[in-house]
Specification:
With about 450 residues, the chain is an all-alpha fold. About 70% of the residues lie in helices and about 0% in strands. The protein is built from 30 helices and no strands.
Length: about 450
C-alpha cells in the first residue's frame, strides 16, 4: 500500500465502493471491515473507524487508521482527529490536525480544520480560519452551514455583505464568472434564520426586480423563500411574470397547499398550452399525481416523451411503477418506435427488463433478455437482478462471474445481500489486482 494506491481508491472509488461498504455496515460486519482495512482498503478503514467509535472502541479505531496516517494520507489524519474528538481528547485532536502556514493557504485544508474546530465548540476560531477563503461559492455555503444554530448569524452577515454587494453589481459590470454568485441567496437565508424574514424577502425581491443577480439559483432561492414564508402575493408576481419558468411551480404548489388546487391546475394548464417547450408539464404532472389522477398525468407528459431537453418519459414510467401499474408502464414504453429504441438501446431494454421484473413476470423478463445482443450495456446486471429476485441466486452469481465487464464488488454485493459476507470478502481481489485489472480495461478499450 502507498499513497498512489490510496489516491486511486479515493479518486475513482476504486476497489470497494460505497455501496458495498454500506451493505457491510448495515449488516454489522465491522470485523470484516477491519480485516479489509488491514489490506489497505481505505473505504473500509474509514467505515470501520466510524463504527468502532459508535461502540466507544476508540483505541481500536485509531489502530485501524494508523497505517494510513503513517503514509501521510491526509484523509486518515483528519479521521484520526475526529476519533480523538469523539473520545473527548479535544486538545490532541486539534493539535494532530492543526495546519501549518502552507495548510492555512489551502481552502480545502482550512475547511476541514474549521469543521473540526466547530465540533470542538470553537466556532469563532472556525470562522476566522474560513474568512480568508470566502471568495468561492462552496466556501460561503460551508460557512453558512457550519454556523447553523451557533448564534453567530450577525458575524456571518457581516462577512456575507460585501460578497452580496459584489454579486449585485456583477451583471452590470459583465463579470459573468464571479465565483461567489450565491452570496445574495445565502444572505437572505441567514437573515431568515436570524428572524429577520421581512428584510430577507424585501432585499432578495428588490434584487430580482432590478435584475441584480447572476444565476438562476438566486431566482429559485427567492421562490423557495416566498413559499416557505407564506408570501403568496409576491410569489404570484414571480410565478406569472418574466421569471415564470422558475417561479410558477412554487406558486402553484403554494396555492395547492392552501386548498386551491383547482386554481393551481388551471394556471399550470394555461402555461402549458402557451409554452412552445415543455417547461411547465412536470409541475402539472406532480400536482395530478398527488391527487391520484395518474392517467391524466400520463397524458400531460406524453407530448414531451421525445423532447431531448425536457423528456418526461422516465418520470411517467416511474410514476406508473410507484402506483403499481407495471403493465401500463410497459405499454407506454412499448409505444416507442424503432428509431427511438435504436437511439437508446441500453436505456430502453434494461428499463423493460426492470418493469417486467417489478411486475413479477420473471420468466418473460429472462426470455426477453435472452433475445438481446449479449454486448448490450447493463444486460448482465439486469438479468442477474431478475434471477436474484426470482430466488435463483446461484445462477445470478454464475452470470455475473462469467462476464469480465462485471466488477468484483458487484459479485460481492450480491453475496453480502444473501448473508454470505465472509465469502464475499474472501473473493475480493487485492487493491493491486484491482488496479491492474482497471489498467487492462483501459488499454483494451473495455472500461465500463
Amino acid at each position: 500500500m502507498d499513497v498512489d494506491d490510496l489516491e486511486w481508491q479515493s479518486r475513482g472509488l476504486g476497489g470497494y465502493p460505497p455501496v458495498l461498504v454500506a451493505l457491510l455496515v448495515e449488516q454489522g460486519h465491522v470485523e470484516l471491515l477491519v480485516r479489509a482495512a488491514g489490506r489497505g482498503v481505505w473505504s473500509c478503514a474509514r467505515a470501520a473507524a466510524r463504527e468502532l467509535c459508535e461502540r466507544a472502541e476508540f483505541e481500536r479505531a485509531l489502530d485501524v487508521l494508523e497505517p494510513f496516517v503513517a503514509l501521510g494520507w491526509e484523509p486518515a489524519r483528519r479521521a484520526t482527529a475526529g476519533v480523538l474528538l469523539k473520545a473527548g481528547r479535544v486538545g490532541q485532536a486539534l493539535d494532530r490536525f492543526r495546519p501549518d502556514d502552507v495548510g492555512l493557504a489551502s481552502p480545502h485544508v482550512c475547511r476541514d480544520f474549521a469543521e473540526l474546530l466547530a465540533k470542538a465548540g470553537q466556532v469563532d476560531e472556525a470562522i476566522a480560519v474560513l474568512t480568508p477563503h470566502l471568495d468561492q461559492a462552496w466556501m460561503l455555503s460551508f460557512l453558512v452551514e457550519l454556523t447553523e444554530g451557533q448564534n453567530r448569524d450577525e458575524r456571518v452577515l457581516e462577512l456575507l455583505a460585501p460578497k452580496a454587494e459584489r454579486a449585485r453589481s456583477a451583471r452590470g459590470e459583465e463579470r459573468w464568472n464571479l465565483a461567489a454568485s450565491n452570496a445574495q441567496e445565502l444572505q437572505a437565508h441567514v437573515l431568515e434564520r436570524a428572524g429577520r424574514v421581512d428584510e430577507a424577502v424585501r432585499g432578495l425581491g428588490a434584487d430580482i426586480a432590478a435584475g441584480r443577480f447572476l444565476v438562476e439559483n438566486t431566482l429559485t432561492a427567492h421562490a423557495e423563500l416566498l413559499r416557505r414564508t407564506g408570501r403568496v402575493d409576491e410569489l404570484r408576481e414571480l410565478g406569472t411574470g418574466e421569471h415564470a419558468h422558475v417561479g410558477l411551480p412554487y406558486y402553484a404548489r403554494a396555492l395547492e397547499d392552501r386548498g386551491r388546487a383547482d386554481e393551481a391546475e388551471t394556471l399550470l394548464r394555461r402555461f402549458v398550452a402557451a409554452d412552445e417547450g415543455n417547461r411547465f408539464r412536470r409541475p402539472l404532472i406532480e400536482l395530478l399525481r398527488r391527487q391520484g389522477r395518474i392517467d391524466e398525468a400520463v397524458e400531460v407528459g406524453r407530448p414531451a416523451f421525445y423532447d431531448h431537453d425536457a423528456c418526461l418519459l422516465e418520470r411517467v414510467l416511474h410514476l406508473l411503477a410507484e402506483a403499481g401499474r407495471f403493465d401500463d408502464a410497459l405499454a407506454v414504453l412499448d409505444e416507442r418506435d424503432a428509431e427511438y429504441v435504436d437511439e437508446h438501446p441500453s436505456w430502453f431494454h434494461t428499463n423493460r427488463i426492470w418493469l417486467l421484473g417489478e411486475a413479477g413476470r420473471y420468466e418473460e423478463a429472462l426470455a426477453y433478455a435472452a433475445g438481446l445482443p449479449t454486448d448490450l450495456y447493463g444486460l448482465t446486471n439486469s438479468t442477474a437482478w431478475i434471477l436474484e429476485r426470482s430466488g435463483r441466486v446461484e445462477e445470478a452469481l454464475g452470470l455475473l462471474r462469467a462476464d469480465d465487464q462485471v466488477e468484483a464488488w458487484e459479485v460481492a454485493a450480491l453475496l453480502v445481500r444473501h448473508g454470505r459476507a465472509e465469502e464475499a470478502m474472501e473473493g475480493m481481489p487485492s487493491i493491486a489486482e484491482l488496479r491492474a485489472a482497471g489498467r487492462w480495461s483501459e488499454r483494451s478499450g473495455r472500461g465500463r
